[in-house]
Amino acid sequence: MKRTRWLLLALMLLAALLMAACGGAADVDDEAPPADDGEVADEPADEPADEPEEAAMTCALITPNPLGDRSFIDSSARGVERINEELPMECDIIETNGVAEHETALRGAIQQGYDLVMGLAMDAEMFIGLAEEFPDQKFGSPSEVFAETLPENLVAYQIDVHESSFLAGLAAGSLTQTQTVGAVVGGDAPALNQFFYGYKQGVLEVCPDCEVLVSYLGFDFSNPTLGLETALSQYESGADIVYQIAGRSGEGVLEAAAQTGNYAIGVDSNQDFIQPGSVIVSMIKRVDVTTYLIAESVVNGTYEGGFQALGLEDGAAGLSWDEGSTTFADEGPEELTSQLPEVQALVEDYREQILAGEYEVCDALNNPESEACAALME
Under DSSP, is residue 133 helix (H, G, I), strand (E, B) or coil? Predict the structure, then answer.
């Protein structure tokens, strides 16, 4: 009997120990401290992991000179801003300090593996040579490449500016008080003369007795002092309105207008604000649009090498008035601003005639031997 009692006591003690052990384990689970901050809980086994984001395409724009010209280069840079905002593409701007750095910058971009490499105002022979050397690389030029043909991996946009420059000339010819106007042009080349002769034709259309002066800067587009001195010479010769077609050098033209109490016409971007009350209007060349269009074609899979042309009809060229600019109307002298409604109505009348094919403007780039150009080039 005594042995039986001891056996029962032993079994009861063992059972109690087992229950205490189970209860202790449960207590540890219930009171476990929370995970450290930053520790991510495991995903449920039945939920798939997030898909990795698709890598954005990339592009680079090589500029012919540094940013800050408030004209041609800055316009293309705005196209890059739009690419980065609207397309699944990351686009960089690579600035250069002139022709000597262009090829090195382009080669550097190629080596970095960009999906698209764009060069603005690059030497045609050098740019085409690189495209042929790297046939698997997509290249683009938001502005003209002067060549007979292009490789399949290089697209170049030509923005025709003769018609919009003609409209600017109408304004100059209508508002001149001295019957003499001028133009300061970056260099003597067909693409730049497309601006000048269109402008000259517009001036003479409304002021047949006007004299139109022209000065070329030897392709120096980054020298405002040179532009200033050249414009001052034209103003001293009797001009009261000068059209600048010279990139950053043209800022000197606008300054000369303000210094002398005369007037200027801006180019490429809306430059009316640079010298308020001295810049009557600006001729717009929308390389921001062509910069964007090249990138968009790569993203959409519609990229195709070769020449593309846009102009007044496509909205790629026009006047700052088209964008609603009223800077001159607000800041200019009353003797001229009072004439603006009549001048702007005249501009719109000729715009309609041009777009309807009823009036031909001299195109010194594409058709310099036309009847429209003949009298202007004598």
Answer: helix
Provide the residue count of the chain.
378
- What is d(CA 57, CA 335) in angstroms, rounded to the nearest whole number? 54
Do 254 and 278 contact (CB within 8 A), yes or no? Answer: yes
- Note the pLDDT of residue 221: 92
Using a 10 angstrom Cβ sphere, with 0-12 exposed, 13-18 middle and 19 or more buried, the burial of residue 53 is exposed
pLDDT in tens, 146-203: 999 999 999 999 999 999 999 999 999 999 999 999 999 999 999 999 999 999 999 9
Question: Three-state DSSP class for 16?
Answer: helix
Cβ-based neighbour number of residue 93 at 10 Å = 16
Q: Do domains 57-160+290-297 and 162-284+317-374 have the same CATH topology?
A: yes
pTM of the model: 0.83
Q: What CATH number should be reported for the domain whose range is 57-160+290-297?
A: 3.40.50.2300
Name the residue among 224, 217, 297 with its Cα closest to residue 256: 224
Q: Tell me if the domain spanning 162-284+317-374 has CATH number 3.40.50.2300.
A: yes
In the sheet with 263-268, reading across from the earlier edge strand, the strands are 211-216, 180-185, 241-245, 263-268, 279-285, 317-319
Nearest to 79 by CA among 297, 317, 289: 289
**Greatest Cα pair distance in the chain:** 143
343 vs 358: CA distance, rounded Å: 20
Hey, where are the domains in the chain?
57-160+290-297, 162-284+317-374
